[in-house]
Amino acid sequence: MPQRLKPSSSTESSDLRNAGLKVTLPRLKILDILAEGSARHMSAEDIYKRLLVSNEDVGLATVYRVLTQFEAAGLVTRHHFEGGMAVFELNHGPHHDHIVCVDCGNVEEFMDGGIEERQQAVAERLGFEISDHALILYGHCRKTDCPHRKRPSVPGGHRGP
User: Fold this and answer.
1) 3-class DSSP state for residue 31?
2) Residue pLDDT, tens place only, 133-143
3) β-sheet bridge partners, residue 98
4) How far apart are CA 19 and CA 96, in angstroms?
């Protein structure tokens, strides 16, 4: 079973040690960004940009290397949603699934006991014991006021007459 992280920043050093990783400043900074980020799913580039904004001297290659180490240690989960870019989320809390808007890229998390029960029943019927799974649904957000929807650019920088 993967290591589950506590979201509290006061436990970051022990989380790294418990995962068998040496506590280094780049690892702490990246773990802090993942823990405090308003976005639960962040790309390596997103993390790197946040490091730049806070004047941290951590290169993009280091961010990729640390995320790969975190994934191997079970601290983060890597996802490849629509568009193919890898995004990472801290591995804490209960199992959940994802639904992704193919228009705006927004990712919502959900848990549905009925889906989980059905998957278990299918596995049992086929003679499998589930060790892990990932469910990603893709669709079109129907919210007319979706804050994540990419707005079409308007020539001249203004809208309307």
Assistant:
1) helix
2) 888 898 888 87
3) 109, 136
4) 22
Residue 99 — φ and ψ, nearest 5°? Answer: -130, 130
pTM to 2 decimals? 0.65
Using CA atoms of 29, 19, 116, 38 in order, give the dihedral in degrees to the nearest 10: -10
Q: Which residue has the tokens 């280094």?
A: 24
Domain count, the chain: 2
Give CA separation, 47 vs 134, 151, 152, in Å: 24, 24, 26
Please report the pLDDT score of residue 59 as a whole number: 92
What range defines the domain where residue 98 resides? 94-142
Q: With bands split at pLDDT 50, 70 and 90, how would you rate the model's confidence at 150?
A: low
pLDDT for position 18: 75
Quote the CA–CA distance of 102 and 52 in Å, as a whole number.
Answer: 29
Higher pLDDT, 125 or 6: 125
| Amino acid present at 85 | M
Cβ contact 133:119 at 8 Å: yes
Q: Do residue 39 and residue 67 come from a single domain?
A: yes
CB 102 within 8 A of CB 139: yes
Vertex 139, ends 133 and 140: CA angle to 5°? Answer: 155
